[in-house]
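INFO  loader      accepted 1 record
INFO  loader      residues=431
INFO  predictor   begin
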Amino acid sequence: MSAWGLISGGDVTALAYDGRDYDLIVIGGGGAGLSTAYHAGKNGLRTLVLERFGVLNDSGSSAGASRQFRLQYAQQYMAELSLASQSFWADLQGFTQKTLITQCGSLWFGDPALSSQEGGIQAAEKVMDTLRIPYTKLDAAQIEAAFPFTDLPSDYAGFFQASGGIIDLKATEEACYDAALATGRVDIHEYEPVTGISEQADGSLTVTTGRGDYGAAKLAVCAGAYANDVLAHLGLSAGITIWQMSSAYFRKSDPDLRLPTWFVFQDPSASALFYGFPEVDWAHPGYARVATDFPDAILTDPGQRTFVPSPTSLGLDSRWVAEHMVGLDPTPRFTSTCLIALAEDSTRELLLDYTPAWGTPHPNIVTYTAGWAAKYLPILGDMIVRMLAQPTQQLTYGDFTIPLANFAIAWAPAAEPDQRTTPSRAIKEER
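INFO  predictor   done
INFO  writer      dumping tokens
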């Protein structure tokens, strides 16, 4: 009997285990994969995580120290998902003494008429009004009076949402890792890339690595920017594009400087989009992070990553700090790059879908990739496990019912490496 048939309120009888067969195999040991393993394990599922690098690495979408938590979105279902995630964050917080989200508020400002993949000021305000999420509207003068910004165009406006915060990304991954292992049902294999995936006559799955074959009833592909490398074993590719992005830290010249997380909406044809984070004790104390919100390069393969920040991006960061921020030295320090997989369809915030392996819809394989998803890591694992437990077209969390069609993947045949072309995704007012 499979443990999948026994899931009921988290009370599950574990299977007998011979060391090679599992209820679930998760490919990808970043935050999403580890969260999936935790939710599977606590539901009684014997789970294997296969990670091509080491866990807590900086080679993919989980690079860097910080991410933004926010409730505001242009899409109501995304704001609902953020609200629903809060109880899952509280659960994960129980596995660490480190603070996973430091609440400092979220400030959005700039041209209120502009829209982007980040959302858009006016659209986000409408969603917050609908969901009764409190926020404070601000004009340019009020923003400069309340926060360390200066010389903003007089027609800029925005809002401050007090529930926003900054995520300690590595602490979150560590908590997911510890939570998964604490279930007693999760094995994590590092430095073990997948070399093949096949289906058996009974519908079970076999995942092959350099160390041998592993059997499982279900499969979750959580490989982020490397998703198409894995999906190629199924003859598939997801419609993603991979951005390499740069960021830097700037020394606080005013020790009393206080910042929220922030994002500025500007016409990118005239100036770059920027975002930033306050000082935190887990990443370069005494410094605040500021970054351009566009790619240094659009990659066709994550192996093309250079790890070298763009001098152009760093120069734009420095100029923005010098011209529009108070209390920061404009010299960029502690520079770095990260990869992010985004949907080629810019209307899709996240990609999460059943995988049509071997020519037909396959409810036993779920793929997650693409999107700025750190804020959803604790709930994302639960979503994947629930999708695999029983085929469904929607997920309900409290008062919110979220259709999975919002996250559907535009599947295509896998491309040969020499057939890959640079994506045509426009870099306009979108992140």
